[in-house]
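Anyone up for a design puzzle?
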């Protein structure tokens, strides 16, 4: 049975482009994996506390109270227990939301999700696949292969050993007409991502395929 961890981070519950695309992705994922399980983590509704010195001490010292590391342990266990990872993420002030950064600060943990020795950093979550759905108000310059959200999340996931990453960016959301066009563009790409034969006959064809 396939499992996917969906992480949403937009402040907006309604009217969020990243969440809307996440919903569409999950709709198709469910058809492809009819016995699959979706774990939802909304880090906007359930805030993750910022990293503290005590927590970082605990990362390196097993004598530190397990209570301090409880949330980090729980999030890491959740990550390990899923085959795939879907992150929906808005751009806030040229980066990912601080809530999502707080999440990453608890899961990027030495000896738990990566190791670092004389051979360098080695991620321990090597068998996972990830999808990043990003939304930003500005139009992404054509020369930029990835937006700032994708660059930052990719670096973090790579450190964890996750290198199979697919990107679905919705940019220019400040302009509603452009936003609708970009949504449709990415909807089409998500649709194409699910190439399972059984899928095509079951889902509503949005008209452009
Ligand atoms: C606090 C805040 C900061 C933002 N900063 C940026 C930014 O730096 N660059 C940008 O392109 N858009 C920025 N935006 C616009 C959002 O990225 C845009 O509205 C996006 O669609 C939000 O994602 P959502 O639709 O999933 O909520 C910002 C929006 C907010 C609320």
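Challenge accepted. My sequence:
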């Amino acid at each position: 049975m396939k499992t996917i961890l969906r992480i949403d981070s937009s402040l907006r519950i309604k009217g969020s482009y990243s969440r809307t695309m996440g919903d569409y992705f999950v709709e198709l994922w469910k058809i492809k994996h009819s016995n699959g399980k979706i774990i939802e983590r909304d880090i906007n509704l359930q805030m993750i506390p910022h990293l503290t010195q005590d927590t970082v001490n605990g990362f390196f010292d097993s004598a530190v109270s397990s209570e301090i590391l409880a949330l980090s342990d729980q999030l890491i266990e959740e990550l390990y227990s899923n085959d795939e990872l879907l992150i929906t993420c808005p751009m806030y002030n040229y980066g990912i939301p601080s809530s999502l950064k707080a999440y990453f600060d608890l899961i990027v943990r030495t000896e738990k999700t990566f190791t670092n020795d004389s051979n360098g950093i080695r991620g321990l979550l090597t068998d996972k696949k990830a999808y990043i759905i990003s939304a930003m108000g500005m139009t992404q310059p054509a020369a930029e292969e990835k937006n700032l959200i994708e660059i930052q999340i990719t670096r973090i996931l790579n450190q964890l050993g996750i290198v199979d990453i697919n990107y679905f960016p919705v940019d220019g959301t400040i302009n509603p007409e452009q936003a609708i066009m970009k949504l449709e563009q990415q909807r089409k790409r998500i649709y194409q991502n699910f190439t399972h034969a059984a899928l095509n006959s079951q889902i509503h064809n949005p008209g452009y395929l």
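A detail worth pointing out: The first helix runs from residue 17 to 32.
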